[in-house]
Amino acid sequence: MDTLDRVLTVYFPAQAFATNCYVLATGRGQECVVVDPGIGVVDQLREVLTEYDLKPTAVLLTHGHVDHVYSVTPVCGGELGAYIHGDDRYRLEDPLKLLQPGMLAMFEQQFGASATWKEPEKIVEVNDQQRLSLAGLDLTVHHAPGHTEGSVMFSLDTVPDGLPDEVGVTSTLLSGDVLFSGSIGRTDLPGGSHDAMQRSLKNVVLPMPDDRLVLPGHGPGTTVAAERAANPFLQGL
């Protein structure tokens, strides 16, 4: 296959909340994008970059919750852009302040140290339907509020390398906390909206092609076809 039909895709869960961190590149020894570097991912991310000889060129954030952005500043290192929707831009000022009562204490107890935050030096605001060309990859931004005001998904007209042909997918969606396998992101946190989520599912998710692979912010991958058929939160929309 042509290189852009298959992209190097590596992912692993963060140490807290099992947030999926993704690394995408056109191949070994190339530039890459990092998606949603969460809590405690720096060491494992460094190992991935070393193993595949990759150089990050941008960090993409599906939204501004701390479990998706906690490691963005050390990954960016003051040089790379942190890409986030403008409606969630304020969350990068200090996402720790937005945690629910008791959550910060639980987080610090788990890691045995006080949580700290430093805002990324370079922040790039993205908009709905914006096309991004990063690390040789072409991505489209899909604004899908509901989980947060600025929740977005990123689509690519490519699929991960190593994916069996019988899976039958032709494109990929990094869905963040909008769409999961069999579920959706919660809407009861500050900035969430049930009505906005319903609109996003109806107007943004459902029109997507069935043969699109979904790589969510938590849990296993799925497809738009599978979620259209069995996800209870998509029924009746």
Automatic annotation (TrEMBL):
Protein source organism: Calidifontibacter indicus
UniProt keyword list: Hydrolase, Metal-binding, Zinc
GO MF term (any one): metal ion binding
Cofactor(s) the record lists: Zn(2+)
Domain Metallo-beta-lactamase: 18-218
Alphabetized InterPro entries for the sequence: MBL_Glyoxalase_II, Metallo-B-lactamas, RibonucZ/Hydroxyglut_hydro
Keyword check for Hydrolase: yes
Keyword set includes Metal-binding: yes
A Pfam short name: Lactamase_B
Protein name (Swiss-Prot/TrEMBL): Glyoxylase-like metal-dependent hydrolase (Beta-lactamase superfamily II)
